[in-house]
Amino acid sequence: MRLTFAVIPTHDRPAELRQTIESLALPPERVLVIDNASTPPVADVAAHVVRDEEQPPNISRLWNIGLNWAHEQAAGEKYAVAVLNDDLVLPPGFLAAMVGALDRYGAAIAYPDRSGDNADWHNTEQGPVLKVDRMTGYAFVVDGEANLRADERFRWWYGDDDLEWQAQAAGGTVRVGGVTVEHLYSNVSTYEDPTLVAQTEVDAQSFIAKWGRPSWLFPTTTS
Prior knowledge:
Elements: E1 3-10, H1 14-24, E2 31-36, E3 48-52, H2 59-74, E4 79-84, E5 88-89, H3 94-105, E6 109-112, E7 121-123, E8 129-130, E9 139-143, H4 159-168, E10 173-176, E11 182-183, H5 188-191, H6 194-211, E12 216-217
Keywords: Glycosyltransferase, Transferase
Family: Belongs to the glycosyltransferase 2 family.
GO molecular function, one term: glycosyltransferase activity
């Protein structure tokens, strides 16, 4: 039996944040909200809240705040950590399905299906995959025993890809078939902020510099 925790960075989405927390169905002491300079500050949520003022944000650093917190809370017990965006609707049984997949495959990270084939996929090899098969950076669950941390050089994008490739060397990742998550505002924060758009390009080049190749591919068609 694992302890299960959740980490949710947030900025100015109070209603969506509460919805995400409610769909988790975890006790408040197992949920950490990292309030990244929200106005007004996050309050009255069923979670522990810490405040972070850095703008523009470093999402990898925010994830690490949460991963380190969960490690301390687990106090040597076996555990898993859900790393979530603040604009999700999670299906019933989400955490149980993700943790079950970690245990079945001995994987380091589990994430929900968006490929449409509803099949589990246990990936243990680093290398580019189709975009639809890449890890869902908005919702994934980390095996605490893998001791993974985000590389804070990836300030906005590609931190999830870097974690995915780290995980593939530590037991693999597993896409859990039949489990989907509703992501309300995909990439809205990025495209509304020119600074973050520019950061994605920097992060893309940093990923190639670190790993020697891009992390994912767009599908191609032939006639």
